[in-house]
Specification:
Length: 301
């Protein structure tokens, strides 16, 4: 259990009348600062309880770099790259940084780089310039609905074209259905999806302090999940200390379980974790925080 400091995101002072709530969340480190920031904006306390370690490795970076290698980079035979996570973008960028020459030729058909919601902010000028000397050849695509299925719809019909899909190599957990379904949906739209394991998602053990906080008069007001893998990681960690989700619910009946979007909510439900709040705006973590506030305000009316 880690209470995030405010080095990157300064805390926002709360008014004397504000209810001080403690919000636990299970995101990997690369997302923790953003979610903590939005929690603090409400005057609440963020409690970071990561259940996953998500990061590229030398092996996964090498796997991505395979598509960039001269003299004839395999990426030149692709029409698009589709990212379903910020970590995938970071791994792709790290792999590009190790290559002397952009893998895409300056001339040719438009190459599409697709990403979800706020993740697209990482597809800036530096990223594009390392991908292709001619930035006009590259089009950044951000679907209006920030889900993998929304990404598929925005890409449209593939007509047999290849799309590179940086994805996680899941270790120690069962792979959630999100990426396999994404690849299958692309195939049904006429694309030829090629998966590359660009980073690893590993289970991160340890919930003893979180459980202790729950036992102390249910000191946690809400727990936020941003992916199905986080939910599975939490359940596995609870099992280590002899608990399951139903036992947690009995220990802490007023704690609200919130999911960042319907994909995460559906995955949690399949794992037996009932979700009380689902954000309808999931292009940003602000959506799930707003959904929590709406829930509590509605109950207070």
């Amino acid at each position: 259990m880690i209470v995030l400091n405010s080095h990157q995101y300064p805390p926002v002072p709360s008014s004397p009348a504000a209810t001080v709530r403690l919000i636990a969340f299970t995101t990997p480190q690369n997302y923790a600062g953003r979610l903590s920031h939005f929690i603090r904006l409400k005057g609440w306390g963020p409690l970071w309880c990561p259940t996953l370690a998500v990061e590229p490795t030398p092996q996964t970076i090498s796997a991505v770099q395979h598509f960039f290698l001269p003299p004839n980079p395999p990426l030149r035979y692709f029409s698009a790259v589709a990212f379903t996570s910020r970590t995938g973008i970071a791994a792709f960028a790290e792999a590009l940084a190790g290559i002397d020459k952009p893998p895409l030729a300056p001339d040719g058909e438009t190459f599409v780089v697709a990403a979800l919601g706020k993740d697209s902010e990482h597809l800036g000028e530096s990223f594009i310039s390392k991908l292709c000397k001619n930035p006009g050849r590259v089009r950044v695509l951000v679907p209006p609905v920030a889900t993998p299925s929304g990404l598929v719809e925005s890409l449209g019909t593939g007509r047999g074209k290849k799309v590179l899909c940086p994805a996680p190599l899941v270790i120690g957990l069962e792979e959630p259905p999100v990426v396999p379904k994404f690849l299958a949906d692309l195939g049904r739209k006429g694309w030829v999806p090629v998966r590359v394991n660009a980073y690893e998602t590993r289970w991160r053990s340890g919930v003893a302090e979180l459980v202790e906080m729950m036992e102390e008069e249910c000191g946690v007001d809400a727990i936020v999940f941003t992916s199905t893998a986080e939910v599975e990681g939490l359940l596995k960690s609870l099992g280590e200390v002899g608990l399951d989700w139903e036992m947690v619910r009995r220990m802490c009946p007023r704690m609200v379980a919130a999911a960042h979007g319907p994909v995460t909510a559906a995955g949690a439900e399949k794992l037996g974790v009932g979700i009380d709040v689902v954000s309808s705006r999931f292009d940003s973590f602000e959506g799930v925080v707003e959904a929590l506030e709406y829930r509590w305000n509605s109950y207070e009316c």
